[in-house]
Write a structure and sequence with these properties.
single chain; ABC transporter substrate-binding protein; 4-stranded antiparallel β-sheet; about 575 residues; alpha+beta; SBP_5; Peptide/Ni-bd; SBP_5_dom; 4-stranded mixed β-sheet
Amino acid sequence: MASRRRGGSAMTGWAVRSRWSGAVLASTLLVGLLGGCTAASKRDGSGDGRPSGAAVPAYGRTDVNPQPRSRLREGGTLTLPLYRWPAQFNVHHVDGASDEMSAISGMLEPRLFARDAKGVPHPVPDYLRSAAVTATTPRTVVTYRLHPEARWSDGTPLGWRDFAAQWQALGRGDDRYRIADPSGYEDIASVRPGADDHEVRVTFEEPFADWQRLFTPLYPAAAFGTPGRFNQGWQDGTPVTAGPFRIGERDVTARTLTLVPDPAWWGTRPRLDRVVFRTLDPTAAVHAFLNKEIDAVNAAAADVYERLRDARDTDIRTGSAWDQIQVVLNGAAGPLRDPEVRRAVLRAIDRQALADVAGEGLPVGVPLLGNHFFMTNQPGYTDHSAGSGYDPEEAARILDRRGWRRDGADGVRSKDGRPLRLRFVVSQSTNRLGLDLSQLIQQMLRQAGFDVRIEKVPADDYGPQYLNRGNFDLVISRYIGLSYPSDLHAFYRPTDGEQIYANYGRISSPRLDALLREAGRTLDEGRRTRLYSQADALIWELAHDVLLYQRPQVLAVREGLANYGVPGLGDIDFGAVGWER
């Protein structure tokens, strides 16, 4: 599901802007809560942000074991799990837009800005000497001063042509480029050289508040400048790099990806000798961690946390991140094309019960979310879910009004001879928690008269063959790391044929699109927050999705691993990651 930014199945290891790396939830817990869910009393479902257990970590809290370079030993290997074998290394392509691929690309390609624990972006000095708004009239101009030693692996210096090629691919409306997100790039009027070869001037047709998120990662013009290079040139590898690491080995049989320090890197050499990514399903990843075959694994499920909290040589790290779980609704086909039927789905799902399942037994709280743009512990958060909460009687009334009647003994509603049937697509690598939540949702919707069929599909096909093609009615998604609000425009943007951006449910409206464009171009922070607030209220009104909860950050890490863990709203600097002496 759901990265960068990127729905998909939050439980599968594949997500829009993210991978799910949670683990097993005990079946006894499911049984205990299931009765409470299906027989729960009516709630207003206003999403008050109540934690289901422990307290929610404070805004910007991190847990990475920060250590200076002098306290780290030279060399060593870090082994991490992947939950889907990477096939598209271009994170700006719709098939590559995921959190895990963003992390890998950030090690291989230029990352101009990095965010701190509170999500504030700062220039990365290995690439930028400076970057600032240098003019506001008649148009906004951002001037980038590049590090003079920054070079691509083919020997070409980073320069304005790389910026121009990325703008042309993402911002010019050329449908031949299968892009994930044009926002920000579409507001650029020109990209030109500055005072010398190391300066780039980007002129905006309209101001863009989150300009620091653009050109990160930056890709080379030589391997990005045509639709063919953009779409196919980054499949199964990276033709050109400019990061502290390069690909050392890509073993298709063992499904491992090994990154090693690039000897041509002009910055401070990484402490690690190699970073190895192993493709594992979530259950296998837990076993691999306990067997000391990998060095970190998600522990954000009750039984896994219980198994790992006291494991030898293990450090449990918790914190606060931009991380949400939601159910994506396909509004382009089937019964959910009707927005009223989507509203019935919203009313039939007990979101608090699902948050309780996710948070049971964890050391951090799992609050409901009532806002798509801001987390409950983040400035700007306002709950707009009132009127969309759990109310099975209202769900029944909505379906009655739309002509879906309970006629048969099985309780499934039908209309014009068609059953009210939905396909809930999950990956075969979905972990137990994902299956438990899917089954809970299935039973809740069954109470309202939906016939929900859970369909497992191959993990490698889940994104390109199902999610991207709208080949589903329901999926669970995880979105992580979207601390720039404009990052989310792609999830609600009107689609155009195969150009879906990240709007996998294909649900939008001209008003919503206009609000998000205006918010992205508004420099005044207070007014911008109010515009996102209006947009969020409209997303609930459209029944675009079923927003569930703020996912907990609980990570089991090998003891002695430094500068790695839960970075708050920030980014992990893999060049600084290493093992304590």
